[in-house]
Amino acid sequence: MAAGRGRSRRVSLPGVAELLRPAAAGPDGGDQRRASGRERHTQKITVYLSAEELLDLERARLALLRYGAAADRGRIVREAIAVLLADLDARGNDSLLARRIANANRADPAVADQYGPAAGDAARQEHATGTTESAV
Questions:
Q1: For residues 36, 42, 45 and 47, what is the CA-based torsion angle, rounded to 10 degrees?
Q2: DSSP state letter for 84
Q3: What are the counts of helices (DSSP H) followed by strands (DSSP E) for the chain?
């Protein structure tokens, strides 16, 4: 840390119990997970996108504007995260997120180099057997 700076860059993260807590189900059996909306956010992550992904995000923002639902890119990303995590909580291995990541891992068995042998083993086993079960 530079001399004279009073703030630490260390981030306080939630504990394991909080991270593994499923979202509460709503009255319709759906998930109560909500995006935070327009408020001051104290936590930050950096996400790198391809030019095509950024263009798709901007197109989505403009489409929402045409539908009368104005939102900035950050709000769209927070909403998308909330929707995907709610689906993951509700459907687990059958969720859209789990299926897409498992499919991407099957397409790239070198994933073990980045995420460890268990992820790569599951991807290779699924690829060899044609099953859709995976460790996500």
A1: 50
A2: H
A3: 6, 0
Residues making up the chain, counted from first to last: 136
Contact assessment for residue 106 and residue 133, using Cβ atoms and an 8 Å cutoff: no
What does the angle CA 44 – CA 46 – CA 48 come to, to the nearest 5 degrees?
Answer: 160
Beta-strand runs (E) in the chain: none
Backbone angles phi, psi at 25, to 5 degrees: -80, 145
- Rounded to two decimals, the pTM is 0.58
- Domain extents for the chain? 43-91, 95-136
Q: What is the DSSP string of 81-128?
A: HHHHHHHHHHHGGGSHHHHHHHHHHHH-TTHHHHH-HHHHHHHHHHHH
107: confidence class by pLDDT, cuts 50, 70, 90: confident
Q: Which of 35, 33, 37 is nearest to 22 (CA)?
A: 33
| Closest of 114, 44, 111 to residue 78, by C-alpha | 44
The pLDDT-based confidence of 28 (bands split at 50, 70, 90) is very low
Which residue(s) pair with 31 in the sheet? 25
Least confident of 2-6, 75-79, 106-110: 2-6
Residue 91 or 130, more confident: 91
